[in-house]
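Before any further analysis, we paired sequence with structure tokens, yielding the entry below:
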Amino acid sequence: MHPSFHEPLRFQPGEHPELATTTAAVPDVWREWDELAEQAGAAPFLRPGWFAAWHSAYGEGQLRVLTVRDGARLAGVLPVEARGSATLSATNTHSPLYGPVATSPEAERALVLKLVEEAGGRIELCYVDPGTTWYGALDTALRSDRRRIRAATVMRSPYVLLQAPEGGYTQGLSRRFLKDLRRRRRRLEEQGHVEVTVHQSARHIDAALEQFVELESSGWKAANGTAIASRDASRRFYAEIAHWAADSGWLRLAFLTLDGRPIAAEFDLQCGGSMYALKSGFDPEYRGFAPGHLLTAECLEQARIDGLASYEFLGTDEPYKMNWTETTRERVRVEGYPRTLAGRLQAIKPRLRPLVRRLRSR
């Protein structure tokens, strides 16, 4: 839930503030949104720079920005992608979180009411945090509109609380795991000079990013087609994010090097009191030294020293991440279908896909 940093909205219960929609091309809305996000301490994935890069790389429809205003002042914003009759979140597998930036629960309710009012067909919003007040407002608005609702967990993202009392964040970790890390670090140091370097500025950023992409693509991700280098769109997206984050002072492109050669890397964003690990990779040649874990240990400790509240692994709760924590953040997909014949057909379509695939395979 985003805390309110502004005065309460000036309207009575049961009334709505002024509502307006606009397209992403209106410069003033993007500027105001950025200012609102900064005041609210919003995660980077909820800010206009993120959505601008995402839509440029992956967008298939029209990016529209729903806004709520208290008089002339922006009080809430939610970007959506209009694709045919469907209204979708501007997200995909590269998106850790989706939601509005708003000054209050009242502004959030006004945004979801506008969303439901304007959506003629299916509404599908993915990577939503079910623990927020706006999730509750969304559920209420969809039910009030008599829509068929389907919600499902799409991932659980691990995170580490860095300022934990009584021994810190390592207190609950497996002693065997920590002992093994120390052993691997000693073995790696026997091979040469081990160092961690962090690229933060816009200077020489393209060369550093190319080095990162090459390393991130050297393992199983390339074989599975999930590496950044596997798609031109992903190369463009992460390049834009890197430049945007560097200009904002958030970029932390960390490398673990052996005699100057990068053997592990993390693409992190440090923003709003948290470190977000967007992407990572390591050289398979050095797998036996666990270079990815060694670099994560360094990044975690530096984030703690910097006074950050959490280190967010993002993505799914893969075993290598769960070595570091037992806590996760749930992300859900919410779908709302109109109670029309077309809506009913859209609602059952996902259930029919496995059956169609089985029939075609015969």
Notes: The chain is about 40% helix and 25% strand.
